[in-house]
Design brief:
The complex is a heterodimer. By secondary structure, chain A is mainly beta. In chain A, 0% of the residues lie in helices and 45% in strands. Chain A has a single domain, classed as Rieske Iron-sulfur Protein (3-layer Sandwich). Chain A contains no helices and eleven strands. In chain B, a hairpin with a 3-residue loop joins strand 24 and strand 25. The chains are: A mainly beta, B alpha/beta.
Chain lengths: 107, 401
């Protein structure tokens, strides 16, 4: 079943500040869902790859999220680690807006 | 080409070693560390997982190897010969250098009362392991010193159901680095959690089962921890004839009084634009000074620009402070859902900010405040207090101006 994409409703678009992120928990895992400056949406694993700190508490500027504790940074569109101490990329998941609702593909 | 030698393999020395490679330095890099481990992060030491102390290496051993950093583990530096540009090591070797970085850190201040040897330090992995191996429910722990380290430890121990007393010489805890508003809140939270404070008290004696205070009160204790601050480790620098004070004195480029020797991290007292030298003890500072020092060791002429910043986690509360708040500053409070922010203005200009809230909930606001500080803005105090004014919007308009 791993090749089946399951879309999961995460929140309403308006629940996320523009250039912001919220935490989304599903099936025992935690994610961060982002709304970019252009109202596009993205989803990544919730925890920083350096230490288990939730990225939804971090500052979102443009398409970058910064870990609230150690200032490691990621491009949340691609998961690419941009700044130390983060050096491992972040896992990303497809996200889309349907009728004002953000849904993410976690399969 | 003898390359660069770094003495001290804590956060600062290790970061400098990697930063030298990132900046393109291709000569030899030798990192000398006295502890018998790979370089490790200190902040996790006060946050044991399932009762066990965390050993979180800063990097993997093969990461050091892959960029060509020669790591000398469990080796200490005995002497610097600044004229000959060499360092004598505890393993009998002498290393020659072109440039030397001192990242010797700091060591715990020691008590000098009778029985002081019964108090445990809280600085290294070995210190933390010794404390947490003995700290179990039902035990009584007395912490001498009501600063950040002492109170972080108190919070962790209360979480394990251990009775905790804190003894502090000053009339209030957290007086040194934490703005009074948040020091008061954290103090109250510790009292709510059952920590017993003995304030304005000095210590007469430490016995096998108690701390005897100057006024004669005996505070029962199975374990005594001394957390009364640290002293910069300047012995090597002093013996080598470098200028020292409260730390190894450097200019704004982190260069010591010897042009071939730099200093970074807890041991470095850096010249300030307004005069005097300041030493910062924090994880971020250790890293940002290391990065500046590395680029200058490799031939750069960069001035340290980083704004001081630290965090402290106690119970479910997170404190973050950016810049150096001072009682003379005008303070402006912004109340938020999860906590409070306080901004500090000096002659109208934003110079510092602090926040206390649930977990990391205020981190992004402090980060924005830090960027506003760096931008040199003089915001309207009413806007800073007004939660409907977005800090990010303030920053963007400041940058556009």
């Amino acid at each position: 079943m791993s090749n089946m994409i399951t879309w999961v409703p995460a929140c309403k678009l308006e629940d996320i500040e523009q250039e912001g992120a919220i935490r989304f928990d599903h099936a025992g895992r935690t994610y961060a869902v982002y709304r970019g400056p252009d109202d596009s949406v993205y989803c990544t694993a919730g925890l920083c790859t350096h230490e288990a700190i939730h990225l939804a508490d971090g500052l979102v500027m443009d398409f970058e999220v910064e870990c609230p504790k150690h200032s490691g940074a990621f491009d949340y569109r691609t998961g690419e680690a941009l700044r130390l101490p983060a050096c491992e990329n972040l896992k990303t998941y497809p996200a889309e807006i349907v009728d004002g609702e953000v849904r993410v593909a976690l399969g | 080409m003898d390359g660069i030698v770094i003495i001290g393999a804590g956060e600062s020395g290790t970061r400098a070693a990697f930063a030298l490679r990132e900046t393109g330095f291709s000569g030899s890099v030798t990192l000398v560390g006295a502890e018998p481990h790979l370089p490790y992060e200190r902040p996790p030491l006060s946050k044991p997982l399932d009762g066990a102390v965390q050993m979180k290496p800063i990097c993997r051993g093969d990461a050091l190897e892959s960029v060509g950093i020669d790591y000398l583990q469990g080796v200490s530096a005995l002497r610097i010969d600044a004229d000959a540009r060499s360092v004598a090591l505890s393993d009998g070797r002498t290393l020659a250098y072109d440039k030397l970085l001192l990242a010797t850190g700091a060591r715990p201040r020691r008590l000098n009362c009778p029985g002081a040897e019964r108090a445990l330090d809280f600085r290294t992995y070995a210190d933390a392991a010794a404390i947490f191996a003995r700290a179990e429910a039902g035990k009584m722990v007395a912490i001498i010193g009501g600063g950040l380290i002492g109170l972080e430890l108190a919070a962790v121990l209360r979480g394990k159901g251990i009775a905790v007393s804190v003894i502090e010489m000053a009339p209030k805890p957290l007086g040194r680095a934490v703005p009074p508003r948040f020091a008061t809140r954290l103090h109250a939270r510790h009292q709510d959690e059952g920590v017993v404070f003995h304030l304005g008290q000095s210590i007469a004696e430490i016995t096998d089962d108690a701390i005897v205070l100057a006024d004669g009160i005996a505070v029962p204790a199975d374990i005594v921890v001394a957390a009364i601050g640290v002293q910069p480790d300047i012995a090597l620098a002093e013996a080598a004839g470098l200028a020292t004070g409260n730390g190894i004195l450097t200019d704004g480029h982190l260069r010591t009084s010897d042009p071939n020797i730099y200093a970074a991290g807890d041991c470095a007292a850096v010249a300030q634009p307004g005069g005097g030298h300041v030493r910062f003890e924090s994880w971020r500072n250790a890293r940002s000074q290391a990065e500046t020092a590395a680029r200058n060791l490799a031939g750069g002429k960069e001035t340290l620009m980083a704004i001081p910043w630290f965090w402290s986690d106690q119970y479910d509360l997170g404190l973050q402070v950016a810049g150096l708040p001072h009682p003379d500053h005008q303070s402006v409070t912004r109340r938020l859902d999860g906590g409070e922010l306080e901004f500090y203005l000096d002659g109208g200009r934003l110079v510092a900010a602090a926040g206390l809230g649930l977990g990391n909930s205020l981190a992004k606001d402090i980060k924005l405040a830090e960027m506003l500080i760096a931008a040199g803005v003089s915001p309207d105090p009413a806007a800073l207090a007004d939660t409907s004014v977005n800090l990010k919007a303030l920053l963007k308009s400041a940058r556009a101006a």
